[in-house]
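How a chain folds remains the central question behind the approach discussed here. In the encoding step, the backbone of a single protein was reduced to a row of integers, each denoting a local shape. We regard such an encoding as a compact summary of how the chain folds. The sequence in question and its structure tokens are set out directly beneath this paragraph:

___
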Amino acid sequence: MPQPPLTIHETMEVHELLNFETICAMKTKGVEGLVTDRELKAVMEQFLQQSIQAIETLQPLLAGVPLSGSRLPSMLQQTPVPPTQNAEVK
């Protein structure tokens, strides 16, 4: 059964969530090179994966809605390397 279209209020809420997740993911991706602590780096990588998954879940809800900037930024489209517990931090 197809899902009914979102109301204007729901569309705005989903758009705000999408913006929030995108900004969080971009900030995390931007500072991950500065982090030297292995545990913190692993937490950040996990957070980044969760943010990307949230973005990919929210995007289809806005399919067909004319919004600017509703695509996953190119810096987040790269396939992330899965975190390893014994990785050396440079």
The chain has a mean pLDDT of 80. The chain has two helices and no strands. The longest helix spans residues 8-31. The radius of gyration is 16 Å.
